[in-house]
């Protein structure tokens, strides 16, 4: 085993890589975990699966996972908005205790009914603007037992003025603040992405350093039998000459040669190659490819693959001298 800590001088780096390889092997060798990883990625493997029965099928587990995610999304929404509401009502029940309620002179059939003197409804929700700032929107409706007349001035100020104030605050304060906050978060995300890319690069370089000897042994063995020898291998963003963007590539010849077994190299479809030992994504968010130049049976071959394409080499169609038959 190339990455076993006992076979490397740097035990810490070798131990980290060896643990990750063991985890990957456990996932790929378990059909259920493999299905979860193919559908949901690593976040699916980290989900709280122990609440389900062990005998459930892959389809049932997928449905259960989606149900759990919907529940958690609803919980997160409620935690963010934190809706609250109150309802209050004031009742005047003094008529029930009036001593003169049965006197003929004062008798009124409605006097025994309690009066609703006031009614109030309040509702509020919270709108997170940032991790440290939250806006609270509150609505309040009140009614009191009056003489039934409508004051148009009060109705205007009570209806349209709050709406105008809300619109002004939203467009002049909240929207610019959110835009500024979004730009700040974008900058932080880019910085975090840069740090993650740097970390992955250091890990890949350490991995390549450990596999150099085993890769060279495979090259020597393949050359003796005119087998598969990787002469060039580039992974990353390839651009055309007329493009304003620049290419961003990493050399993956050594890690790719290390994957050759019995003059063959086969990688499954549907999985990004940035997770292979010695690989990393040099430009996250861009369309990346793998381009390979290799020798086989004394002939030169070239091939290009999208990031999630299956890789099968050698193939006759990759030969630079290949001419398809009509």
UniProtKB/TrEMBL annotation:
The keyword Nucleus does not apply. GO terms for cellular component: mitochondrion. The chain crosses the membrane at residues 154-174. It comes from the Eukaryota. InterPro entries: DnaJ-like_C11_C (IPR024586), DnaJ_domain (IPR001623), DnaJ_domain_CS (IPR018253), J_dom_sf (IPR036869), Mito_inner_membrane_organizer (IPR052243). The keyword Chaperone applies. Residues 51-78 form a coiled coil. GO terms for biological process: cristae formation. Residues 179-202 are annotated as: Disordered. Keywords: Chaperone, Coiled coil, Membrane, Transmembrane, Transmembrane helix. CDD domains: DnaJ. Residues 1-41 form the J domain. It holds the Pfam family DnaJ. PANTHER family: DNAJ HOMOLOG SUBFAMILY C MEMBER 11 (PTHR44157:SF1). This is J domain-containing protein. It comes from Ciona savignyi. The lineage of its organism: Eukaryota, Metazoa, Chordata, Tunicata, Ascidiacea.
